[in-house]
Amino acid sequence: EILRAIARGTGPQKAMIALGYAGWGSGQLEEEISSNGWLTSQADSSIIFDPYNDTKYERALRAMGINPLLLSAESGHA
What we know:
mainly alpha; single chain
């Protein structure tokens, strides 16, 4: 229904449509988050709806106070 509303011009003012698939087993995502497998933050509409997709990742990291050059592929608990 939301896609039809967007097509009619009656949907939300801003939208981001992504195609693809990601799946997790029961409790898997929660486990990954608690194991520091994900960085989470507050949503920022100026980043989410920015048309320049190539800068979103770095801007989101910087909004969290993270220098992307200092990230490691390793994760864990300090």
